[in-house]
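> forwarded from #structure-qc
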């Protein structure tokens, strides 16, 4: 038996309301360029809109002019999507509350997640959306996942409840030491001011 190895998210498709509501939310609120549309190839009564969330991957939305937005929270039963999280910069995150409130969009307020900050709100169809902002940049040649797994191991070894910034800092230091060469024989911390 062998795995089917995936290499990233190709796209996520959501069921939307009408075409304009979808464009107004995904591009007009979240800034995702509307890159193309075509019919839903499995249902000729629906449109299929494509948006770029910022990494060249795709968020797509099935639309139907007979469907109306419904902001009631989408189901969170087993097997349902709980929320979608999108990466934002620190600069954008710091403006999120103000920009949501100027549109009258209710939100959770900023939430401290230890390794990131989050804010939650619903799209026009009731799907919970998270704006997430990492509190770190991975070292060159490493990914956020590399830092997270190293920070997790440090957290577990320390007996701490959740990943905190101190675990991230130690993980980054460890990854740099393992991935980047140095002419020094002793790379331990020193005090040149002593």
């Amino acid at each position: 038996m062998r795995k089917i190895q995936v290499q990233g998210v190709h796209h996520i498709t959501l069921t939307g309301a009408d075409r304009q509501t979808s464009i107004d939310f995904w591009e007009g609120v979240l800034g995702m360029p509307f890159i193309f549309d075509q019919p839903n190839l499995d249902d000729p009564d629906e449109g299929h809109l494509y948006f770029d969330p910022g990494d060249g991957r795709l968020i797509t939305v099935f639309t139907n002019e007979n469907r109306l937005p419904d902001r009631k929270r989408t189901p969170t039963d087993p097997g349902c999507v709980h929320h979608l999280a999108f990466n934002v910069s620190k600069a954008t995150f710091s403006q999120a509350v103000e920009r949501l409130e100027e549109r009258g969009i209710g939100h959770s307020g900023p939430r401290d997640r230890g390794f990131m900050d989050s804010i939650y709100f619903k799209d026009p169809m009731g799907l919970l959306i998270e704006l997430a902002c990492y509190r770190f940049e991975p070292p060159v040649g490493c990914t956020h996942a590399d830092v997270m797994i190293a920070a997790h191991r440090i957290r577990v070894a320390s007996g701490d409840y959740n990943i905190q910034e101190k675990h991230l800092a130690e993980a980054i230091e460890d990854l740099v030491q393992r991935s980047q060469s140095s002419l020094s024989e002793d790379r331990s911390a020193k005090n040149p001011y002593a």
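QC bot note: Helices lie at 19-26, 90-101, 144-158, 165-179. The chain has a mean pLDDT of 96.
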